[in-house]
Amino acid sequence: PLKAKIVLLPGDGIGPEIVAQAQRVLEAVASRFGHEFEFSSHLIGGIAIDTCGDPLPDETVAACKESSAILLGAVGGPKWDDPSAKTRPEAGLLKIRKELGLFANLRPIRLFDQLIDASPLKREIIEGTDILFFRELTGGIYFGESGREGSGDTESAYQKMIYSVPEVQRIVRLAAKAARNRENRLTSVDKANVLEPSRLWRSVAAKVMADEFPDVEYDVVLVDSMAMHLINRPKDFDVVVTGNMFGDILTDEASMLPGSLGMLPSASLGDGGPGLYEPIHGSAPDIAGKGIANPLATILASAMLLRHSLGLGEEAELIETAVESVLADGHRTADLARGGASIGTEAMGDAVMKHLAN
Ligand code: NAD
Ligand code: IPM
Ligand code: MN
């Protein structure tokens, strides 16, 4: 039996609705295996701006640093979209990733057989797809110096894209190690035909692969072309490593392989310390408060939390198997139903819970 402190950061929009379901699932797993999980909930995002004027209060950072792992819902929404506001909910998420040194964002694109017909793509194209993205998460254009110059009709804005040798080395090494435990293939995605940081990325990645991973099959694809290959021949990819912004965009695109953004979990990891787990989707303002959001991405993120931060592989598999069973039983939230019959967020949580009972 294990004792662990788990920090919950529900955030905005559908965040609190989906995190509540994942918490139930974690509690069920704890009681079944005799673990003690101590949960505490803290502010991040828009709700933190409303409550204390800061999208990432110090108190939240302190709680995260003392925890074993963190489960986050989502941040942001139209309420905080004013372009002249001095801060935004998203700044809180970027800051916690940076503060905790979470440079590696793992985004598995895993198909559920039961959902193949929920995908807008053809069965013969997607069947057998299994991709693991490594998105660099604490560098690149997201964290480059930004600003504005001039004003009025001639005003301009800039944001620098910077990558350093060690930043590229560490993410490529992690991705290549993961490839060894899978199909031993790694694809690096960049825009080296245009961008200087991509040219650095490409040469550093090539050297790491040649010097340290000569046994791993390695290739390089330009990001625009990758956007096309992903939906044309997704089965050809095993592990994919890329920079912060390209990884953000390509994984939302890749969510259409399993059929819904509501199915994709992620893990953000650094060098030791607590990991942060979240669905890849956002706060879904269009459906927030309606009780219809799909909680499965967050529930699958909680499985990743058990596996990667707590070393509880068997417990993680139990959750993943429960999700498969629920889908096999025919349960669908609206995003998966494609116009057919659907159930709400809590009912989906109930269905998963049924498969976790002793
Ligand atoms: P979004 O991911 O919130 O939603 C895109 C579409 O997918 C919407 O139609 C939404 O209803 C649907 N969707 C997303 N998750 C779903 C779920 N679990 N179940 C059913 N449907 C789901 O993207 P957006 O609308 O572009 O962004 C909304 C806000 O979320 C923005 O403020 C953005 O900055 C923020 N955001 C936050 C995160 C995060 O916290 N990690 C990630 C992405 C976007
Ligand atoms: C994600 C989100 C975030 C990102 C935003 C909300 C900062 O889109 O987690 O994918 O771009 O990283
Ligand atoms: Mn995103």
From TrEMBL:
This is 3-isopropylmalate dehydrogenase. Homodimer. It comes from Rubripirellula obstinata. The keyword Manganese applies. The chain holds residues 104 to 461 of 461 of the full protein. One of its GO terms (biological process) is L-leucine biosynthetic process. The lineage of its organism: Bacteria, Pseudomonadati, Planctomycetota, Planctomycetia, Pirellulales. Its EC number is 1.1.1.85. GO terms for cellular component: cytosol. Belongs to the isocitrate and isopropylmalate dehydrogenases family. LeuB type 1 subfamily.
